[in-house]
Write a structure and sequence with these properties.
The protein is α/β, with parallel strands linked by helices and 239 residues long. It contains nine helices and six strands. The radius of gyration is 17 Å and the shape is globular.
């Protein structure tokens, strides 16, 4: 029997889906980069704007994580798909996905993340999205990382494991916090399920800035017995 939170989330999702469908009829979606009509109603960018996004350097995430005293060596593989610039096209995409009720963008974007990971690395045992605290999830109606993880898992041919990592403790927004403040904010935010022990998991997040959230989530998995996880994010913030 579904919990009250699940029922509320599913009902709210159905209402949003219906409302979004009606809006798309009246106001057809346009590319978030140039304003043209995209070829796909699911991807938020036209092919030209998609190709113009700057690919994140292969070692960019690892170099960023090394700046955290607790970040070095946490991940077996750590990659990002694109570079994230404030005010740039990818920020418009990420804000639409995260804040503007566009969860449908997550799965096709996640497929691109999965393809980039699969180009160089073997598939994991499962894909694990960075979870939201239930209050934040109910406010937003969905977890954008879950939609990204679902797309990545589809390409990688493995399950999307929503049951392995929880966020029982609410945290402040990371925006505006220093690197040390970000780590202190999330270091004890997560809880792992016993089923994660021994598994090779791919952790999925939307944007990596300092890496504090991803490292806290990964350390929670490894403390519960998982092998060194991998990380794939949609964007790597330029610093």
């Amino acid at each position: 029997m579904p919990t009250l939170d699940t029922f509320v989330e599913q009902t709210a999702g159905a209402v949003r889906w219906l409302g979004k469908g009606l809006l798309d009829i009246v106001y057809p979606p346009r590319c978030l980069g140039c304003g043209a009509r995209p070829e796909s109603s699911h991807l938020p960018l036209c092919p030209q704007c998609l190709q113009s996004l700057e690919r994140a350097p292969e070692m960019g995430v690892a170099a960023r994580l090394d700046r955290l005293p607790v970040g070095a060596g946490v991940f077996d593989v750590a990659r990002a798909l694109w570079v994230f610039d404030k005010g740039g096209t990818l920020q418009a995409v990420q804000h639409a996905l995260k804040y503007q009720n566009r969860p449908r963008y997550g799965v096709p974007l996640g497929r691109l993340m999965g393809e980039a990971f699969a180009d160089q690395h073997p598939p994991p045992d499962g894909v694990v999205p960075v979870p939201l605290h239930r209050t934040r999830r109910l406010e937003r109606g969905y977890n954008q990382c879950t939609t990204l993880a679902e797309g990545a898992a589809e390409v990688l041919g493995c399950p999307c494991r929503l049951d392995l990592l929880a966020r029982p403790h609410p945290t402040r927004s990371q925006t505006g916090l220093s690197r040390e403040e970000r780590w202190q904010n999330v270091r004890d935010a997560f809880r792992a399920a016993p089923d994660c022990a021994g598994g090779r998991w791919l952790l999925v997040d939307d944007v990596l800035t300092t890496g504090s959230t991803a490292v806290a989530a990964a350390r929670t998995l490894t403390d519960a017995g998982a092998e060194a996880p991998s990380l794939m994010t949609l964007g790597l913030a330029r610093q």
